[in-house]
What does this fold into?
Amino acid sequence: MIYKVLNKAFGWDYIGWKNSVASGVARVYVDGAGRVFYWRYKHTKVIDFITERKTVVWLTCPPEKYIKELEDT
It folds into this structure.
């Protein structure tokens, strides 16, 4: 898995995403406002913001590194 090599070499974190049409692995980014996102389809400039831990599969780090939401009660 190339994402594991990139995580070790550069410290980049990765998630797995899936929708009704496709699935993939993407690098996690944080914008200037502190919002966490990933490029779902970078060539067409489609990004998705990650607001909940359970919307993606965290592959190289725990979600707490980026998402500081309260646990559901």
Notes: The CA atoms of residues 27 and 42 lie 11 Å apart. DSSP finds one helix and six strands in the chain.
